[in-house]
Amino acid sequence: MHGNVSNNTDNCEVDPGFLNFLYAITYTILLVPGLIGNVLALWVFYAYIKETKRAVIFMINLAIADLAQVLSLPLRIFYYLHHTWPFGEFLCMLCFYLKYVNMYASIYFLVCISIRRFLFVMYPFRYSHCKRMFDVYISIAGWVVVCVSCLPFPLLRINSHNGTRGEVCFVDLPVKDIGVFYSVLMVTMAEIFGFITPLLVVVYCSWKTISSLQQPQPISNDLGEKKKALKMILTCSVVFLICFAPYHFSFPLHFLAKSNKIKDCSQKKAILTFHPVALCLASLNSCLDPVIYYFTTDEFRRRLSRQEMQDIELQTELYCDEGTRKKSFKG
Question: 254: closest CA among 240, 284, 277, 274?
Fold first, then answer.
């Protein structure tokens, strides 16, 4: 694959300056809100986990996945601003790997959140007493599957014959040629199991929840719970469409363009320009996920309310005053 890329004419390639600018600006914009949002989410969920079983374990894992990617953004920004990588090959591959782990872990846990809320509302008597450890086991299994499945992404970028090894990273890493058959197989598996199947599951949960709302509700509380569940599931669907649909649409096209299966220069350039934009949209989920928590989870908004924050500040002050008095007494 890499050997074919070197035969492309300069007119068909994307301006490297455009790519550096796009990635540097995008990651700079996402860094602060992504860091604050996900740290705040973990802090809230630490207390929230004691109050409910409604997908909070999956939300915690989603926040961890987002935070892992956000913590790698400063190194990415450095590279795209300075066009050099002085941090070693291992750290380069780790940051490169975390990008895809975050994306597919986010997809996995968004699906888990949608299914959990759907089952809790549609079958409350069957799933209301579901043990929290069951969600923990599902999360662990998900991390294992995602981490193993994402290994080909960095492994296909490791090239010991690269003359500039150690100086380039991320988008500038060479791609190993593994042949058309295995390349098509990898792209197909990523599309089917990494995006199409999860999207169908979320759409199904949305459709069934909407259908249930059109039926007579025996208890008034059921209607409110179903509306809350639908709001969260639909929000997960929106994140799918905004963040992950463009990337998985451009992913096979990008492979065809890079392997010179698409001969038309204008088409190739359009695809190679759209793919990095789609990749940036995929990174946007690290900022959108905390928005999901805030607008779809009552307890999350309550924890961040002014009264709640004032109570926390008061408790902190009392704790500090008590510590000061104890020191004075000992003195």
Answer: 274
Whole-number Å distance between alpha carbons of 284 and 73: 12
| 21 residue type, one letter | F
| pLDDT confidence bin for 118, thresholds 50/70/90 | confident
pLDDT at residue 51 in the model? 58
DSSP letter string over 78-119? Answer: HHHHHS---S-HHHHHHHHHHHHHHHHHHHHHHHHHHHHHHH
Q: What is the rounded CA–CA span in Å between residue 91 and residue 93?
A: 5
How many other C-beta atoms can be found within 10 angstroms of the C-beta atom of residue 144? 10
| 156 closest CA partner among 91, 93, 95 | 93
pLDDT, tens digit, 9 for 90 and up, residues 150-189? 998 888 876 544 444 558 888 887 777 777 788 888 888 9
The values of phi and psi at residue 218, to 5°, are: -65, -30
Q: What is the mean pLDDT of residues 136-142?
A: 92
Q: What is the rounded end-to-end Cα distance, in angstroms, of the chain?
A: 73
Most confident of 40-44, 54-58, 154-158, 245-249: 245-249
Alpha carbon distance 295, 273 (integer Å)? 33
From the CB of residue 234, how many other CB atoms can be counted at a distance below 10 Å?
17
C-beta separation of 242 from 252 below 8 A: no
CA distances from 47 to 114, 148, 303 (A): 22, 32, 9
DSSP label of 11 = G
